[in-house]
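Many introductory courses stop at the sequence. We go one step further.
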Amino acid sequence: MGWHFRRLAELEEGEKIDIPQREVFKALLRFIKPYKFRVLLLAVAIFSGIFVNLAIPLVTKFLIDSILRADIFMLMIYSVIFLGVVSLNLMLSFSQSYLNSWIGQTLIHDIRNKMYWHLLRIKQRYFSGQDTGRLVSRLTNDVDTIGNAFTSGLIDTLANVFQLFSAIFIMFKLSIELSFIVLLLIPLILLSSWIFAKRARDAFRESRKKIAEVTSRIEQNVSGAKVVQAFSYRKKINIESFSKINRENLEINVQASKVVSSIGPTMGVIRALGIALILWYGGMLVSQGKLTIGTLVAFYGYVDMFFRPIQMITMFYNTLQSTLAAAERVVDFLRWEKEEDHGSIDKMPEKGEIEYKNVVFGYDERIPVIKGVSFRVRPGERVAIVGPTGSGKTTLVNLLLRFYDPWEGQILIDGIDIRKYKLDTLRKFIAFVPQEPILFDGTVYENMTLANSSISKEEVIRMLEYLGLKEIIDKLPKCLDTKILEGGKNISMGQRQVISYIRALIANPKILVLDEATSSLDLYTEEKLQKALEKISKGKTMIIIAHRLQTIINSDRIIVIHNGRIVEEGTHDELLEMKGLYARLYESQFAKITT
């Protein structure tokens, strides 16, 4: 377990992700496999284009030689052939471009879908150890990089290799002497490519890390815009901090661009050297009658076909470095463990009894948060769990919902270990109302009916009336049809809580769990929600976690937890008589209310 947290710490600190390149390449091939038919069509279009392209210098040779021989008939024939070959080449180029783009964009779509579904199933501990912005960067920037690499010509690059060797073969057929001059330049080309490739890979890997940091910082400041603006003295620090990260990102990207920009001119110099030698030596061969002008022109065309693929392959190799850096992060993400679901029971429990038996758990294997906790909640009982911040209250709920599994001990529902229930079944009969209501893009009605979209608006209105909460929702501009902005920022906390309550009621669970669900509310709204809660909880087993002790005075039982252990248990009056931790907490809060 500790390995996972160390792993996440490594990612936070920006260390290299240690995944073998072979595994990354295999993953890329798996991503492409579903489109094999389109990839085959693309390959046919590309290789057909190469054959047509290879024919152009030869047709040019025959054209020039026909002019020099004053053969008008053959000149007309070769002119028509030249026009046909060039037209066919343009049509094949269009097909290549379209198929490349289609496959690249579809690849982005499918990889992002795969990552999103994986995101919904990974273990909660990864969320607690991962920065949101960095995580978002993997699903956006890194996926785009992979798709764009294909769009920029993965198959085309493979075809360039074929074109390179084909050009060499034809050059040897035209002139062995000139071909050897070209081959003498290959060691210089390979050395330059190796130097640039090594520098580019390091630069692009750093670039991926920095763009993730920039995305993370933007996400944090957008989410916490109110806090940033409220604490005006922090603005300068925030701006300076972001500017520093953004400057580092700029410098790394400029460095990467410098490496990539150096490739073209370097290859251009080598190409110019080769062409100068060929024109010089080829010109001598023409003057000696050992070579025709048409053959020299054709050879010049194939020299261009020799250098251009090398330049394209080298440039794509550097694009590949960026792609591999992104693919490493995507593959690493897809290796994060999904929630284990070995349960076989899909039958709903009939009673809703909960029992914790000697439960031990911690988020880090060295520091247990829950230390041998045991208690039972009877069917239909309302139990509150209270204690100082960090005592382990919310962790108990996380374990009940199987966001985490205990190191030791068991949690039972109706006498059955919760690990034996299927995850979906377990979470269907437990409705969870978190401290901060989680709302999604959509209308109020859509957010209320997440658990059951078949519920009509009329039924929702009847539920609101039954709970006495309709007037709170009626204050919204379009009532149930009001569009909720990100995080519910356009509606009040009370209205958000109403949505959570209706969502729980629609789920109709056996067990209801509220995690400090009435904090940050005005007294009027809190009173309305408390009355609604009484109606919702009828016949249900309920666990309430609250810091505001006046909201849980009427609970059947109150469990006091401190430093991961149960220290007191009883009714409100019984706990006050004990004059222990609960009494001190209550007196402290009561004193704050009355002053």
